[in-house]
User: Fold this.
Amino acid sequence: MSDINFKNIKVVVIDDSKTIRRTAETLLKKAGCQVITATDGFESLSKVMEAKPDIIFVDIMMPRLDGYQTCALIKNNPSFKKIPIVMLSSKDGLFERARGRIVGAEYYMTKPFTREELLNTIKTYVVETKTAG
Assistant:
């Protein structure tokens, strides 16, 4: 894993759980990523527009604007539709996965996640696409 350069990769983590935000932020910063966090979908929209991240991790169950709505709003904007979005959920259900795909999410991750899962997802959806494209 250490041969991959995660420097300058901008990641937005959207979750109403402070623990999840902090965990993801710590793990990703240690790997060299720039991390921007948001507590819900509404707060995330301006941050996504400002940061233009390389990848977004979004919790499904959030107040006000849930993960599906947030993902749909981001994907409906032509400037941001190419940003890979990873849905986060404590449920590992087929319905959640299918619904995530419908709103345009690239991937689905179950919480709690590991450092490897986070970094492998970034490697798959950001690092490899950047080097390939």
